[in-house]
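Reply to dn_fold:

You asked what the input looked like. This is it:
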Amino acid sequence: MDIEAGLGSLSYVPGTGRPVPEAEPGLVERWRSGGGELVELLSQVRDRVGGIAAFRLGPTPTVLVTDPQAVQHVLARHPERYVKRSHRARVLIGEGILAATGAAWKQQRRLLQSQFTGTGMRRYEQRITEAARTAAGRFDAYGRTGQTFDVGQEMRRFALDAIWRSLTGHPLDDGTERELAAVAAVMAALPTLPADVTDAQDAVADDLARIDAVAGHAIKAARSGAAGPDGPGLLHVLTDAATERPEYTDRLIRDELVTLLVAGHETTATTLTWLYLLLDRSPTAREEALTAGGEGSAQRRRAIQALVHETLRLYPSAWILPRHVTEDDTIGGYTVEAGTDLLVCPYLTHRDPELWPDPEHFAPQRFITPDGRPTHPGAYFPFGMGPRACLGLQFALRESTILLEHLLPVHTLAFSSIPKKTAYGITVRPDGPTLATLTPPLT
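and this is what came back:
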């Protein structure tokens, strides 16, 4: 993939840019009066104005970026000009790596990066596999009894077990699972919390206290040198760092732990839930994946990974990426001034019919067939891109693939309840229960 392709036109030449084209005020006013989702407004702005477009929610314009070349310019080529100012989940994750900026972010990323590539991933793969086997056992029981269960809850349970094993070396026990349900409760509350940080913390104080108690217990165990049955985990990397790096206080370690819990299970669980909902609408996609080579083959794995990638195309882990412009720049021939708020929107880029033919159709073969998908890296970025791309990208892909390798060949889901709406919060998630039953395990 040629990441330099087509970037010459995006280089900044002072004084050469034109004003970013702006959506007509009536478009925003109609959206406000209709009470729709932000994604609906952004979609209309993109369709009417283009892949670099301005609109006004207040006195100054916000710039929407969905054009692939512009996406790469902002996120990968010049991230120093387009920075994160805050994170909507700061009330939960504090100064963890998702919310950190500047020198602190660089130090935190440097410490964690090796844990999610190469040797680091091999270290955690067996723990993910054990979590998948545990989940498969629960599915076997559901298949035998015909019990109705919530697919979303099961996906969260698996993903939380996988990241908890990787963090602590311990499998997820029932008590810890109950207490960490507070993480999902805070995540769900984020869109409605007060803007003031103190008021927001007060609104979810009980849930934060439960999370802090679990984190404090795990940090204390790691500091004592007590490894779990699977050996030391990511948390031990953080506590060991504290012996040489004074910035790794108990509070920062707590924030990193909670950040990794959130990033390591919430997005994966949502992706897997969407995947099963999409397979319910397109059952032949499952059969195509299972007939692509035998169990454990490279062909089977690629076909299952294609299911995951196509799900992430339709429902990216981060559907919108806010940035703040720190210096005047030119994107695709348009001038953006310092102080401008900018929104990069993977959700809309991934559904652009000029990039993805029949974009609303679930077609995993896009990621297997030669020339089945756009080659420009800015056309597909479900985990972001550039230096602030999601650190756990490989972890999430392996996690999803391993679970599906255990479940897909054995079980077929029959949904009895499918959410009618989509919730656009930190993630894009089904807005309601996803109740299903299983056919008996195949023998």
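The longest strand covers residues 52-56.
Hope that clears it up.
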